[in-house]
Every structure is written in C-alpha cells, then in structure tokens.
Predict the structure.
Amino acid sequence: MKQQIVRIVMATAVLMGCAVSVNAQFGGLLNKAKRTAEQKATNAIYKQTQSSNQTQSPKQTTTTVSEGDKVLLYYASGNPLGEWYPNTREFKQMGKSGDTYQVSHTYTFKSDGSVVAEDGRRIGEILPDGTMNTAQTQGIKYDAQTGNVTRNGEWYGKMDGNGMYVFNDMVARSAGNMDKQIQTFILFNLIVTNEQLTKFKGQYDEISKRNTESANYNRQMQIANIKANQAASNGAVKLWKGGSVCGEIRANDEVWIGGSNRGKFDNKGNIWVGGSVAGKLEGNNIRKGGSIVGKVENGNVWVGGSVAGQIRSNGDVVKGGSVVGRAPGFKDARKVAVLYFFGFYAF
C-alpha cells in the first residue's frame, strides 16, 4: 500500500510540473531578421558614402554629449544598433562601414507623435492611444502595465528589463534604461517588417500547438497513471495498449475488456473465456485447449520453446524488444501473459 501511495504522489508531482516550453524550440528563429536589419543599416551607410564627396570622411558617430545623455543599443549579437538621445528624442541607427560602425539614419520623435527622418520626411507615428505605425509595420502597441507588445491586438513580443524581444527571442537590448515605447518602435517599426512578423507568428503558433498537444498528451497519461495506480491499490490491474486502457483484471480476477466481462481466473487456476474453461495455469506453465503453450519464468514469457517477451516488474509488457502494453500493479505475471501473449481473449 505504501508503494502505491508513493507512486501516486510521484505521478502527481510530474503532472503538476508539466510545462510548455516554446522558447527553447523558438530560439534562433529571428537570426535571419537580425542579420537583415544589420545589413539594411550597413547598406544605408554605403549609399551615403557613395553619394557624398569622395574626398570627405564618412559620417562619424562621435558626439560632444556625455554618455549620461544617451543610451546605447545593441543587437543580440553584440553589434551596435544605435544611440538614443532622450533630451532631443533622437535615435541614431548604426550600420557598419568597413571595420567601423557609423550612423546610417537619424530619426526624431516629435511631441505630436510624428517620427521624422533627418531629411524631414514623416516616416512613422505614435498615435494618442499608443498605436505605432510605419510603412513596414502597423498596429504595434506597447502595454506599460505588462511589458507586452501586440500587433493588431495579438501578442508578438515584450520589453523585459532592457531586453527587446520578438515573441520569446531577444533581438536587441539597451545598455541602460530608456523609454519602453521608443524601444518598441525601434524594434517593431524600424527593424522587423510585416512579412517577417507574419512568418514568425505562423511558426510560433505551430510550435505552440505542438507543445500544447504534447503537454496535453503527457497530462492525460499522468492522470491515467494516477487512476491506474489508484485502481491497482484497490486490487484492480489496468491493462494498457497503444497509450490507452483497453481492459482490466479486477480484484475478483474477472477479466474485463472494452467495458465487457470476457471471463475470469478461478481459484483452481482455470482460465475461463465466456462461460467455459479454455485453459489453465499450472505452476509456471500455461495450458490452452489441453496443451502447454508456454510458460512465465522470472518475468520471461516463453511461447513454445523460445522467449517471446517479458512482463517487467514495473508493469511494462515487452514483446519483440518493444513495450506493447502495461499492467501497472500486477500481482500475477502469468495472468498478464495470458492476455498479451496467448490470445485467450482476442486482446
């Protein structure tokens, strides 16, 4: 009885600990997007340097403001993403030119919600209700209460600490505290595109679905195990095949399959199928129709003159090297073998 209680407690603990981990499988999904964003910034630098006077030095990132007046941002790779100037509400996006990183674009966040480029073009907006739009992404919103980022009402990421995430994958981070709404605009309206977000959402949903299905299956198995262990503690042995319970040997030795009474084992060792005796348990031997068809010895199941499988102490029924069923809490391996190996009940 103590062993049954321990099994029930352990199975319950596993059930309570069952969790879905999408992040583990989703990690790295945005690597291409990160590289694309960095390459776009690099291409912008290249165009600027090509269109400028070839005798002039490329635009440098050096500035006279102190480090306390700006916040540095980086891609998850560690490469510079840009600089945020809270006093002037300017974001300077970085790109690589040769071996150095330089400013590729400068965006100013106006008090009326407009976001403008260095040439005065209005490239985006932050509406009074918090919705953020650019040509490449629309319907982005940051929730200051939860840190979550939504796109047209659906969850797409989060601002967590100084990390900037698409779903559960950190794409960028700031080296210091800064306005989370601005962080959201930079990541979701300047770096990633509608097409990328739609693609990643489909992949994320598929992974989530698979994980949920797997978690539900594991949960059902754990619940079934708990019930089977509880039943075993009351004298009944549940008979499993293919991941589901197909029958049981009850405490009174009746054999039930698919909800119907198919027979029993009596106290003389007779094997009843329906209303007649079809075989007998004699010591280790199993008789069927008057002939010895096999035996069970030390957990090994012999059919004819060779070992065909095992009834393991944990209830696993092994045939041909594979677990084909389970009979947790069984008391007599011969009775389990009668069902799984000798076809008395077409089980």
